[in-house]
Amino acid sequence: MLEETEQEETALQLDTLSRMMAQHLATPFPPGVRGMEIAGEDLVLLDANAYGYISGVRDGPLDERRRAGLLRVAAAIAEVLPAIDDERAAEYCTHLRDMAVLAAEIGTSPASADREPGPGFQVPGYRSR
What we know:
Blueprint: H1 2-26, E1 37-38, E2 41-42, H2 43-56, H3 64-80, H4 87-105, H5 110-113
Antiparallel strand pairs: 1-2
């Protein structure tokens, strides 16, 4: 019964992630921050790296190496958000960060949540729903 509930939750998360990905692809990258680096992070590169990791979730849960990479990217996005003064760009990056956090959560069972989550799991500026 617990496994069935986990499968239902994963299906809901994947559905939500698919909608978020479609919305993200339909939204052009904000031109005002193209080529901009904040705190040593190129925003276009962060976008590409995050989406690459996120799209991998469609093939199944991320392995620990990819999940850790995705969480590093999500943390980097959260770190640069306060420095973005363009409202549209901030919304774009917030959406990207939220997608990254959701993608990292997909496929993690409640049992694994009891274990130490590893470095970078707490993403600054993100509150789980």
